[in-house]
Write a structure and sequence with these properties.
The complex is a heterodimer of chains A (101) and B (174). With 101 residues, chain A is an all-alpha fold. Chain A has a single domain (5-90), classed as Helix Hairpins (Orthogonal Bundle). Chain A has helices at 5-25, 29-54, 58-88. The termini of chain A are far apart. With 174 residues, chain B is mainly α. Classes of the chains: A mainly alpha (101), B mainly alpha (174). At the A-B interface, helix 1, helix 2 and helix 3 of A face helix 1, helix 2, helix 3, helix 5 and helix 6 of B. Chain A: One of its GO terms (molecular function) is NADH dehydrogenase (quinone) (non-electrogenic) activity.
Chain lengths: 101, 174
């Protein structure tokens, strides 16, 4: 390890918290998705750091599957954004507060 | 020593670029800052012994996913963009330039440090793409298959959700 594992964890926590703030505070659907991306990348950094700590490939494998999962998630959620934008002509989450079936 | 310095530099760039990304009002600017942040993260992955993941971070995240975001943002024709006048970049537009330049400069610094003639520290652990491929397709072959199914379902689902209104109306009639 070139740096202590604690520093990797602290960096990862900062990035994850920034993503969480973005998801909770922003009201634009696209910005919320960007926050999710930031959080997933922070988790990936933790995996790679743990992989380097124990010199084991399993952590890096998890990041590969994380990337596959993110690709699937982004394609579905962006299609949803396009659909919602067509329905309400807006990407503001406050326009979608009437889920009554 | 050089690698440690580069780690903290790239970490600082990642945090600054992410903080700027989540506070932009224009989603296009946010995506560009996030690409900056992913460049720095790819450097961190490389420093932590994952060269293949670093390449994929750039190819898949910065290259494919973020471009998909940009494509959707452009397609939706969101609120009128605040287009600045003039060709010279304003002060705000220099920030991503500087961040990306520092990321690339630290990458180059690292390559200089890795020159075998000058390298004195013990070789660090890193997973070569060959080891990585063996582990992925031997131990995790089933998981790879499941991930491929997942991507197929995602593609079908995205097409279904995003189908044109004309097709939707026809389905309603039937």
């Amino acid at each position: 390890m070139i740096v202590p594992m604690e520093h990797v964890l602290v960096l990862s926590i900062i990035l994850f918290t920034l993503g969480l703030i973005c998801v909770l505070a922003r009201r634009n659907l696209i910005m919320i998705l960007i926050g999710v991306e930031v959080m997933l990348n922070a988790v990936g950094l933790t995996f790679v750091g743990a992989s380097a700590l124990w010199q084991n490939l399993d952590g890096q494998m998890m990041v590969i599957f994380l990337m596959a999962m993110t690709s699937a998630e982004v394609s579905i959620s962006l299609a949803m954004v396009v659909y919602l934008q067509r329905r309400k002509n807006s990407v503001d989450v406050r326009s979608f507060n009437e889920m009554r079936g | 020593m050089m690698a440690t310095l580069t780690f903290y530099l790239a970490g600082a760039i990642a945090v600054i670029a992410t903080a700027l990304a989540i506070t932009r009002s224009n989603p296009v600017h946010a995506v560009i800052y996030l690409v900056n942040s992913f460049f720095a993260l790819a450097l961190l992955f490389y420093l932590l012994g994952a060269p293949l993941l670093a390449a994929w971070e750039l190819i898949i995240y910065a290259g494919a996913i973020m471009v998909l975001f940009l494509f959707i943002i452009m397609m939706l024709k969101l609120s009128p963009s605040s287009a600045e006048k003039g060709l010279v970049a304003t002060r705000g537009q220099w920030v991503p330039v500087v961040l990306l330049a520092v990321a690339l400069a630290s990458c180059t610094m690292l390559l200089t440090g890795l020159d075998p003639a000058t390298a004195q520290e013990a070789p660090r652990w890193h997973a070569s793409p060959r080891d990585f491929g063996y582990a992925l397709f031997k131990e995790y072959a089933l998981a790879v298959e499941i991930a491929s199914f997942q991507l197929l379902f995602a593609a079908v689902g995205a097409f279904y959700v995003g189908r044109p209104d004309k097709m939707r109306d026809e389905e309603d009639v039937v």
